[in-house]
Design brief:
By secondary structure, the protein is an alpha/beta fold. It contains 15 helices and 16 strands. Helix 6 (about 155-160) packs across helix 7 (about 165-175), helix 7 packs across helix 12 (about 295-300) and helix 8 crosses helix 12 (about 295-300).
Length: about 400
């Protein structure tokens, strides 16, 4: 069923996510492995399930390593033998492997198949380090990576048009996040948060504790909650270490660093380094963390209206990542710029605030942007701009969060 050029499989409540198909399309049949990574339950498997439906004239070999029927494929040689047995002569062959990281030395299988040009290969993985330097060396650069995120605001609107008015979508998106399962129906917020907690627990236990043999489960969760509580603020391992110690937990800065790395690898958090606008360099020793999905924060800490500016900043960070930007926190002569987005040689500068309630706030949000001496677009994004909506004499655009999220181009 085709509606407004979007593909709906209503019986499964699936919606085609066109932005990712557009990203995959240039790589189809190029001989490389297409690797789709992202947090669990963000829609990776569904994306390739829809793709399978479109491949009506190909032999598609599909393997989900988390299904019992494929549990016998525990190492790369067994995997390779099975795939070879499913190959068909005289027809296009497509290989899709879901959660490929569960196969020991999987990269040896894929390298062999690439060398023999047997299949058009698509791999799905929940680990952000799926293509570490070790694996990419084995593959010899023969891969294309597509990073997938939970639903964007615009995608939530597509899902929600069946049960929710447009004006209510942003509020629900900010409160429950964008995991696709939450947007299949108008389920209560409490149920949404329980689902996200369950997703989080699976990631913490399976993708981190089991994979990296983590025994201090309480410490891992304390560190994660601490990071989530700092969204919109600069944070360092030393800061987190001090906070954890003040809670009575015994640990070291090295352990904190290690656990943060695991949280990043499992796609639970995303780091934004500082871009020094004057020196035109990236400062990796100063950064912020954002939740890969705001629902992750709210499910563990509860929804806190007083954190609205941080929530907006998190949403804008994810939106820009979704649109293919490299996203940083900005610094110009010691003045903070919430977000600096870079793509194709162009930049965007964004300040996020819930409202302007004083001259000091106005000077910080508009004044910091006005000091940047270039002509790249500059935005102040507010929940409801009121009298500030429009373009200032210095060229700064002030708009609402909804207006920014709905803009086709910046």
């Amino acid at each position: 069923l085709i509606i407004n050029k979007r593909w709906y499989l209503m019986e499964d409540s699936l919606v085609s996510r066109d932005r990712y198909f557009a990203e995959i399309e240039p790589y189809v049949g190029n001989g490389n492995a297409k690797v789709i990574t992202g947090i669990r339950r963000c829609g990776k498997s569904t994306l390739l399930e829809i793709y399978r439906h479109r491949l009506t004239d190909a032999n598609v070999v599909y393997i989900n390593t988390e299904l019992h029927e494929f549990s016998i494929l525990g190492d790369w040689e067994k995997l390779l033998s099975y795939i070879e047995s499913e190959y068909r002569q005289g027809i296009d062959n497509v290989l899709i492997v879901d959660e490929i990281q569960n196969i020991e030395k999987w990269e040896l299988t894929i390298c062999d198949l690439i060398a023999r040009k047997m299949f058009d290969i698509y791999l799905i993985g929940s680990n952000a380090n799926l293509l570490s330097s070790e694996y990419s060396t084995h593959l010899g650069g023969r891969f294309n990576r597509i990073r997938m995120l939970p639903l964007s605001y615009e995608e939530c609107k597509i899902f929600a048009e069946r049960f929710l008015s447009k004006k209510d979508v942003l509020d629900r998106y900010m409160r429950v996040g964008g995991f696709p399962i939450l947007w299949i129906s108008d389920m209560p917020e409490r149920s949404c948060m329980q689902i996200v907690r369950d997703i989080t627990e699976v990631i913490l236990s399976k993708d981190i504790e089991q994979r990296f043999n983590i025994r201090n489960h309480v410490l891992l969760r304390d560190i994660y909650r601490t990071i989530l509580s700092t969204i919109g603020s600069y944070v360092s391992s030393n800061n987190i270490y001090s906070t954890i110690r003040s809670m009575g937990s015994k640990t070291t800065v090295d352990t904190v660093n290690e656990y943060i790395g695991h949280l990043e690898a499992a796609n639970l958090i995303m780091r934004a380094n500082v871009f020094d606008l004057k020196g035109r360099r990236i400062l990796e020793n100063k950064h912020k963390y954002y939740a890969t999905d705001l629902g992750l924060k709210h499910s563990l800490l509860g929804y806190r209206p007083e954190d609205i500016s941080g929530h907006m900043e998190n949403i804008l960070f994810i939106e820009l990542m979704y649109r293919g930007y490299e996203v940083y926190v900005g610094d110009y002569n010691g003045k903070d710029i919430d977000l600096v987005a870079i793509k194709d040689g162009s930049r965007l500068y964004i300040q996020a605030c819930s409202s302007i309630d004083s001259q000091k706030t106005f000077d910080r949000e508009f004044g910091n942007l006005a000091k940047i001496p270039d002509s790249f677009p500059k935005y102040v994004v507010m929940m409801e701009p009121g009298v500030y909506r429009g373009v200032t004499d210095t060229g700064i655009i002030c708009c609402s969060l909804v207006e920014f999220l709905e803009k086709e181009n910046y």
